[in-house]
Amino acid sequence: MADHRPYPTLDALLAACDEAAYDLGPDDLTEALATESLPALPQDAYGAAHMALNAAHAAYEARFGHAFVICLSAVPPGESLDHVLTGIRSRLTNDPEDERVVAAEELRRLAKERLARLLQGIAA
């Protein structure tokens, strides 16, 4: 992506981000997933929520060998815990190869969200 700078618009940059994400090979995806961590719980989350999330995440990591990734950009903050728990539990049933596809898509969405947020901070 850096080789093609500057990008004329944010949309052009995000499209390039999409294209780069789709070109990730298995080793690239493994490397990218290794740097991810579980989404943070809301400050007011109760102890049982922490335990449930930690247990679900441990099961996910044991099954797939990497952190659970999920993009929460369209999820209201009050629903993020339920969304993450539901996501982990449902994706635990995936075949490992199918889950790599889902994780890659979530990682792509996260990258676009982070890039857009970073650029909005620079423009502010």
Low-confidence stretches: none
Reading off the top of the CATH hierarchy, the class is best stated as: Mainly Alpha
- How many helices? The count is 5
- Which sheet architecture does the biggest sheet show? none
Range of helix content: 55-70%
CA-based shape: globular
Detailed description of the structure:
With 124 residues, the chain is mainly α. It has one domain (2-123): UraD-like (Orthogonal Bundle). Helix content is 65%, strand content 0%. The chain is built from five helices and no strands. Helix 1 runs antiparallel to helix 5. Residues 49-116 form the Oxo-4-hydroxy-4-carboxy-5-ureidoimidazoline decarboxylase domain.
What's the short version?
The protein is mostly helical and 124 residues long. The chain has helices spanning 10-22, 26-34, 47-64, 80-91, 96-123.
Features:
124 residues; UraD-like; mainly alpha
Question: Strands, helices and their partners?
Answer:
Layout: H1 10-22, H2 26-34, H3 47-64, H4 80-91, H5 96-123
Helix pairs in contact: 1-5, 3-4
